[in-house]
Amino acid sequence: MAILEAHDVSVWFRPGKTAVFALKDIDLVIREGDFTCLVGPSGCGKSTLLHLIAGFLRPSVGEILLDGRRIEGPGADRAVVMQHPTLLPWMTVYGNVELGPKVRSVPASDRRRLVEQYIDLVGLAGFASRRPYELSGGMQQRVAVARALANDSRLLLMDEPFGALDALTRETMQFELLRIWSLTKKTILFVTHDVEEAVACGTRVVVMTPGPGRIAVDRAIDFSRSVIAGAGGMRDLRAVKSTPAFVSVREELMATVLGFANRNGARCEPQ
Ligand SMILES: Nc1ncnc2c1ncn2[C@@H]1O[C@H](COP(=O)(O)OP(=O)(O)OP(=O)(O)O)[C@@H](O)[C@H]1O
Ligand SMILES: [Mg+2]
Questions:
Q1: Tens digits of residue pLDDT in 189-222
Q2: Is-contact 203 34, C-beta < 8 A?
Q3: Which of 9, 41, 204, 223 could make an S-S bridge to 62, C-beta 3.0–4.6 Å?
Q4: pLDDT tens digit string along 138-161?
Q5: How far is the CA of 201 from the centre of ligand 2 (A)?
Q6: Domain range enclosing 127
Q7: Which residues surround ligand 2, an ion (CB under 5 A)?
């Protein structure tokens, strides 16, 4: 079932005399349970598309529907995880994760169960009373994921959530997100620069072109299934990433992205 539909969406910005045509004629359908990875060179409009879906921006042309209703602004039905976790520094891990359910007026006893469940799910049981400054970058990002999940949104929007993490923590987080996705059956739209990350995690990889951003490739992928099905945890993720089939898809998509990266930027006048 389609959760999200973008129809003929175009966006331009006017920071000065010259307009920036950020997105052009975007058509995208996201179905329930999809783990859609959006990749493309810097400046191709990935964050712009995510911000439109989050309701932070409006399309210049076209419309985006969530469960058949036009998106007019931010809402609790969409949770956003950014590259740098935007946690409230004076609140504990528990307090940060509790925010969404509190705003939604979830009764106190249900709230406690929900918050503890998600803190546990992201592997932070025992850290509930810590404050963000007492946690590593990876742990803070786990809190941000738990907070997003506790909102019980229809769609989880993630904009390079692991971009600031070291390589080892990043791979751990990829595995953890796959595990969480398989347990919660969430629908995820995940923006990343990292083609390998996209091919490892996604059920689908969407590649965008720059200048202006359009969808060039929309490819179904299912490497994550064998990672989740295995009992070897992180070792299964590494094993899948080194199979010839995985390397072949990764290199093919990488060549596509690199080809687009050599093009000019998004500056041109809208029609
Ligand atoms: N508020 C804004 N005002 C003017 N131009 C903007 C604004 N937001 C984005 N842009 C421009 O729109 C284009 C797309 O930007 P966007 O941030 O969506 O790219 P991106 O694909 O997320 O890039 P990156 O991979 O570097 O994060 C860029 O040319 C950018 O400069
Ligand atoms: Mg971006």
A1: 999 989 999 999 999 999 999 888 999 999 999 9
A2: yes
A3: 9
A4: 899 899 999 998 988 999 999 999
A5: 19
A6: 89-152
A7: 47
Within-domain flag for 269: no
Residues 252 and 180 in one domain: yes
Q: What predicted TM-score, i.e. pTM, was given to this entire model?
A: 0.92
In this structure, are 114 and 239 located in the same domain?
Answer: no
Q: What is the pLDDT of residues 85-141, one digit of tens each?
A: 889 999 999 999 999 999 889 999 999 999 999 998 888 999 999 999 999 988 998
Q: Is the CB of 13 under 6 A from ligand 1?
A: yes
Tokens for 181? Answer: 């996705």
DSSP letters, 97-144, are HHHHHHHTT--HHHHHHHHHHHHHHTT-TT-TT--GGGS-HHHHHHHH
Spatial contact of 147 and 70, defined as CB atoms under 8 Å apart: no
First to last CA, the chain: 34
Q: Output DSSP code: residue 222.
A: -
Q: What is the Cα–Cα distance from 69 to 26, expressed in whole angstroms?
A: 18
Task: Choose one of 48, 82, 257 to mutate for the ligand 1 pocket test, by most ligand atoms within 8 angstroms of C-beta.
Answer: 48
Please check whether residue 26 is in contact with residue 214, taking contact to mean a CB–CB distance below 8 angstroms: yes
Give distance in angstroms: CA of 48 to centre of ligand 2: 7
Question: Count of domains in the chain?
Answer: 2
Radius of gyration of the chain (CA): 19
Angle made by CA atoms 88, 148, 41, in degrees to the nearest 5: 95
**Model confidence over 3-38: pLDDT tens digits?**
999 999 999 998 777 888 899 999 999 999 999 999
Domain co-membership, 36 together with 163: yes
